[in-house]
Amino acid sequence: xxxxxxxxxxxxxxxxxxxxxxxxxxxxxxxxxxxxxxxxxxxxxxxxxxxxxxxxxxxxxxxxxxxxxxxxxxxxxxxxxxxxxxxxxxxxxxxxxxxxxxxxxxxxxxxxxxxxxxxxxxxxxxxxxxxxxxxxxxxxxxxxxxxxxxxxxxxxxxxxxxxxxxxxxxxxxxxxxxxxxxxxxxxxxxxxxxxxxxxxxxxxxxxxxxxxxxxxxxxxxx
Length: 222
Description:
By secondary structure, the chain is an all-alpha fold. The chain has helices at residues 5-14, 18-24, 31-36, 39-52, 57-70, 76-80, 84-91, 100-120, 123-129, 135-145, 153-161, 170-178, 189-206, 210-221.
């Protein structure tokens, strides 16, 4: 396995020093913070990620207070009980981004979240308890159980929520290919697990969380 030290050195230089680099790095939440976050906030973040996909984030963010009102504060049980007629009404609400597939995904995802929360004592407890060494396994479950969370949407949601994960951005993928970790963009399960093996080894080497390793790798390539 390629040591991570050279990536860290390049990222430090390109950031103008270690202090500047550390200021740019994300910090994952603690297990207690993840478990203590309400299901409504997870559904809100999940939905925000879904609506941001393909749109300017600033546009979506500016409308999010209206989404909070329209979806009952994203309380999962209330959202799961919304009728087709309720969703039709939302499609007529000019304060929202009126995208039927994404609006429908919010209700579907609320139903999935209610089930997971009931089984694990809270969605946050489920997220918090998922082992970091198998983060791509969590990606797979999110893509399977929730709508619109395939590709990078699942990892991006986890990053927003504070769960430690790497994200396969263009620069991260480029760095992985440049250093022969993979030969092409890792889209299949086997390739993603190969990447995860590298990140887990780097985490053991450096003691850094996956989210920071991911960003350092990207910065080292700039």
